Amino acid sequence: MKRLFALIPLFIVFSVSAQVDPEIEHEIRQSVKILEQARNAENDSLRIVLANQFEDTFVKLLGNDEKLCYSFDSIQPVSVLKSPDNKFRIFTWGLQFSDGSYKYYGIVEINVYGDVVILHLDDQSESTSNPATANMQPDNWYGAIYYELVQLGGKKSNIYALVGWDGGDLFVNRKVLEQVRVELDNGGKIFFGGHFVDEKKRNCERLIFEFTERAVMSLRYDKKLKMFVADHLTAPSEYKGNTKFMGPDGSFDGYMYDKGYWIYLPDVDVKASRF
Q1: pTM passes above 0.85
Q2: Are residues 5 and 77 in contact, defined by beta-carbon separation less than 8 angstroms?
Q3: At how many degrees (to 10) do helices 44-63 and 22-40 cross?
Q4: How far apart are the C-alpha atoms of 239 and 237, rounded to whole Å?
């Protein structure tokens, strides 16, 4: 069975743009120990209790950082991403259960004209009938551990893309390409979903790629090509359409954002790019 946080080492490193407060530093390290306890808990119920305890503790720590002076560049096992325009930060992490499934946790911290607004993300991916086409907000979030954040449409745009990993279960992993919109007015809000088209020309709010747990799929933004580039996934002919056997076939697909819409580009040539 896959280990909890198997892709992310269980230690904490952080950098700050101001002098480190020893008390805050101590509280951060103590909070990470709670996640370690969740990883080693003897049952799922206790794991959830400890994970919720960590979330509450972490929110309090963020509340003490009123001026966003702590950069938290590489807290682990929590993924921390900051928007290029400094409007928001997003923190995500995961909890694996005994059956191999995952639950994800997230916090969005929005800088609303100097005031800090904290929003909780509630993972509802398992209870959503078709998450690829669902319009989602913080209270019904498609959970994932985000590893890349890109601002779309120019420096003054409030549209961003997030790329995340979802451990799925014992048989499949997933990658997700998510669009978000951040609004500073009315207290600060974040909205999930965009105008995507997948390779079958179906309209989607987000792209969810599912593939065998034995494979590794690449999905990242290519600055030179100015698009997101992904391994194209296929399965052997005898398992066509079965995601438990899907994996990269050596070709690449591109997804380009243009004026509010996403364009699907098959068979992208990445040889000339540092992908």
Answers
A1: yes
A2: yes
A3: 170
A4: 5
